[in-house]
Amino acid sequence: MYILIIMKNKQNQCVAGLFLLALLLVSCSNNNSNKITEYYDAEKTKIKSVVEVIDSITQKGDTIKLLNGNAIYYYENGNIRIKCGFYKSFGIEKNQNSGVPSNGRDGEFLSYYENGNRKIEINYNKGRAIKLVGYYENGNLKSKEKFYDNSKIKSHINYSENGVIEDDKEFTKEGKVIILKEYSEAGNLVSETFMGDKNYRDVYEKKILIKREYLHLANKYYLDSVIHFNESSIITKRELYEKGFEDETTLKYILNYYPNGKIKQKEQYESYGEFSEQKLISMEKFDEE
Q1: For site-directed labelling of 274, which of 160, 205, 214, 247 has its Cα 20 to 30 A away?
Q2: Over pLDDT 90: what percentage of the chain?
Q3: Do the domain assignments include residue 219?
Q4: Contact 156/147 with Cβ under 8 angstroms?
Q5: By C-alpha distance, which of 226, 288, 227, 289 is closest to 258?
Q6: CATH number at residue 201
Q7: Containing domain of residue 257, as a range?
Q8: Cα dihedral sign for 56, 57, 60, 63?
């Protein structure tokens, strides 16, 4: 009885071993992934690209190759030009600049300059771009972008070649700019424009708000009014504009203020001549009390 049990266990082990071997063989036979290699020359000495593909059966029963997995594209000098991944991509829609299929990208997309320095980093999730980072050839940061789930740009930041921020934009899902920040050559904030229910532009000097320009939208943005501030953020002057010659805005009033907020002086202007030149037509002065 004891011997029979051992033999039975051995038989079970053998059966299990055969089943595992058969499973491995089936798994290997179903693994239909392979690579496609392109060359720059007929002698096949200079590799242009190596792309992983899989076979896919169409509804008509035809077998086609889909880009699926890693892909590497090379410069003629042998340096890597682009490394990226694909997820079941037909590879039909190609980027005009890189010549690399733009549909079905998945994972990390890395582009390089010919000298080997990194050029672009893009993160994808099954064809949808999530964020992008660009670099100058010297290695300094060039730009940053984030994307909405509809692939429209959500935010974009530009940098100068020496790595200083130049401007920063935020967009709606429809592609409209809602916030624009502009910076000086030293990287200090110069202006900040907001587009929404209230459209206005804040202007800074040495990081201090010196004026706010209110904008009116009618086919394009027009200057509606301007508020000037001192270093303590107290209003010192207000300018009021109206629509003038060829849709340009012209100055209508200037109001100067005392430190307590009361009007100090009111000036009225009017436009004249072919080019809507302006002249002062009245001035009123007010007591501080």
Answers
A1: 214
A2: 64
A3: yes
A4: no
A5: 288
A6: 2.40.128
A7: 197-289
A8: positive
